[in-house]
Design goal:
By secondary structure, the chain is α+β, with helices and mostly antiparallel strands. The chain has 13 helices and eleven strands. It folds into two domains: 112 residues, no CATH class; 226 residues, no CATH class. The strands form two sheets. Strands 1-11-7-2-3-4-6-9-8 form a nine-stranded antiparallel β-sheet, with helices on both faces. This is DUF308 domain-containing protein.
Length: 413
């Protein structure tokens, strides 16, 4: 892990490199992409050659198949850089199409629930899908435009990293409005939680639950954000809960009788329980680990968080489990063993759960909206991985309100 002295320098260097790449794509477009792929091919080929020499000396950890794959990709990038340049455009087109599909599903649910912003979501989804179609079917015509957008994205991403470096050195400037943060594409942030799990797995005892605590133990947090992860199902992408004033809040697709579309859609259910019972349930699990981030708030911020929770609960009503399937579910177990209470929303954004938009992390973000955290959504889509990446960055900043980090869980292979 880099020292505090080097952390800001890494932000500065990363920012400048990203801005340089962005300017290259803006001004030289396809030609710059070809140069980038040729350089990448040279690096991959060099890595393959070095691995081959080690393999001949029987000191390499690479298999022959992996070696041949690297050599093949390196030669392809070097000899025909226009091919991967075109494939990059197609990949971006597919990504935009996937985003548009998510937004259209969200707009359909928004229309069904009569939510404000439903027309904007529909237009946004259609724009993404149409743009994706143009790129996929007329790639050569739209490739320059695509690289222009990519250049702008990299430029703003670089500026975001430079701002992070300045804030690390000089501290944050308090603003009355939330700042928009340019982050990685959701396809890259989606699996950050399971990647983080793999990194800390060596510290977790495989035989029993244990806590790994980082940060200032003397500074009690006013609010905690817990990010779950595991190696199976949607939990690989993470799940986010909130603990405030001794109560935990967990929103999700907890009603097994209402799930649709491969469990991606269903009635939104809010589950609450005492914080000590919540942590006890985490320690009892043998299939996931949880990352907890502690935040300190001003009295004014605490009052706003409490008001946001009150407003959220005013839109919900108690939900009683009736069917045998519900009682045998995860929610049923939490109600029976840990005294959890369940609520369904009568109206509002969270009446219907959708894994990509109206999900657990969106609910947590709404509650902590007045706690000084940046806006990290991407086209209205927010993943637990994007939130975890942001909280990790804030925890590394000595001037941040994120003062502690805990890893809790029992991991079996």
């Amino acid at each position: 892990m880099p020292t505090k002295k080097w952390t800001s320098r890494i932000y500065y260097m990363t920012g400048l490199v990203l801005m340089g790449l962005g300017l290259g794509f803006l001004h030289f477009q396809t030609r710059f992409s070809m140069v980038i792929f040729q350089m990448a091919g040279l690096l991959i080929l060099g890595q393959g050659v070095l691995a081959g020499l080690r393999l001949l000396g029987q000191k390499a950890s690479w298999s022959l198949g992996r070696l041949l794959l690297h050599l093949g990709i390196g030669l392809l990038f070097l000899s025909t850089p226009l091919l991967p340049a075109g494939l990059l455009g197609l990949a971006i087109g597919l990504y935009q199409g996937i985003l548009g599909t998510f937004l259209l599903i969200h707009s359909g649910l928004a229309f069904a629930n009569g939510l404000p912003g439903r027309y904007l979501a529909l237009i946004d989804g259609l724009v993404h899908v149409v743009f994706a179609g143009l790129v996929l079917f007329y790639a050569q015509d739209y490739l320059p435009t695509l690289y222009w957008f990519l250049g702008l994205y990299l430029l703003f991403l670089g500026l975001t990293n430079l701002r992070d470096g300045v804030e690390f050195d000089l501290g944050k400037v308090s603003l009355k409005v939330r700042r928009k943060r340019i982050g990685l594409p959701i396809i890259l942030t989606g699996f950050i939680p399971v990647s983080a799990l793999n990194k800390v797995n060596s510290y977790l005892n495989k035989e029993r639950s244990q806590a790994l605590f980082l940060g200032d133990k003397t500074q009690a947090p006013d609010l905690e954000i817990w990010i779950h992860t595991a190696r199976r199902g949607f939990e690989m992408m993470g799940h986010v809960d909130l603990v405030f004033d001794g109560i935990s809040y967990s929103y999700g697709n907890h009603d097994v009788d209402s799930t649709k579309l491969f469990e991606a859609v269903g009635d939104g259910v809010l589950m609450t329980m005492p914080a000590e019972n919540y942590q006890a349930s985490l320690k009892a699990d043998d299939w996931r680990a949880v990352f907890g981030y502690g935040l300190v708030l001003t009295p004014e911020e605490k009052a706003k968080v409490k008001a946001n929770l009150t407003q959220l609960l005013s839109e919900a009503q108690p939900f009683a489990l009736k069917s045998d399937k519900q009682k045998a579910s995860y929610l049923g177990g939490m109600v029976a063993h840990y005294g959890a209470r369940a609520y369904k929303f009568r109206q509002g954004t969270f009446k219907t759960y959708f894994v990509m938009t109206t999900n657990c992390v969106q609910l947590v973000d709404r509650v902590v909206a007045d706690a000084g955290l940046d806006i990290v959504t991407n086209s209205g889509i927010l993943t637990p991985g994007a939130y975890q990446a942001y909280l990790d960055k804030e925890f590394a900043n000595p001037h941040s309100r994120v003062v502690s980090k805990m890893v809790l869980g029992r991991q079996t292979p």
